[in-house]
Amino acid sequence: MLVEADVVAALRAPHAGSVARVYAAACAERMAQIFTGLRAGAPGRDADADFFVDTMGRLWRPEDPLDDAPARARRLEQFPEMRPPETGHTAVRDIYAFFSVLTLRYAALCAVSGDAAEAEQCGHVVLTAMGQMQQNVAGSRFYDDELAWQRRSVPLGGETVDAAALRAGCVRTGRARLDAVLARLK
């Protein structure tokens, strides 16, 4: 479940730091509603949900250098999702919340560094999550749809990426993914 070669090439192109940041933000956005939908309102998790939403919002502001990204990544590493029990995460809500937090961690680090490797990690985590979801939801195309979203998130063939339109589409996609996770919990 690797990021496709043409997407990797766009992320690694010279001076592609802003491309990597937008791509990473888009990956995180498609997973964000899963975390907020599963954790907001849970006992003791409101501050985590607020921090998640604040970090997500700052990722989309390219004028914001996100100088505190390393501290944000460390705080995300302290979330319970990043500290699984010895048996690992086994509950559906915990598994997908983990993928969401991990994606945001990589996206925050990418925002400060512009490093293609961090962006690629975002894409890899989301592909893994969607591959797992596709295996568990009969007739779904989550993995295939994620591949398409990743291609739309970078300028392939010379076109530009409209970040505002991309974010709006990612929010809609994130909501559909949350709905699928919630349906699995019933």
Descriptive keywords:
single chain, 186 residues, mainly alpha, 8 helices, 70% helix, globular
- As a percent range, the share of helical residues equals over 70%
Quaternary structure state of the chains depicted: single chain
**Main beta sheet, described?**
none
Structural class: mainly alpha
Strand content: under 5%
Order of helices and strands: HHHHHHHH
End-to-end gap: 28 Å
Give the number of DSSP strands: 0
Please state the CA-atom Rg, rounded to the nearest Å: 15 Å
Q: Could you tell me the mean pLDDT?
A: 94
Query: Which runs of at least 5 residues are low in confidence (pLDDT < 50)?
Result: none
Query: Number of helical segments?
Result: 8
Overall 3D geometry? globular
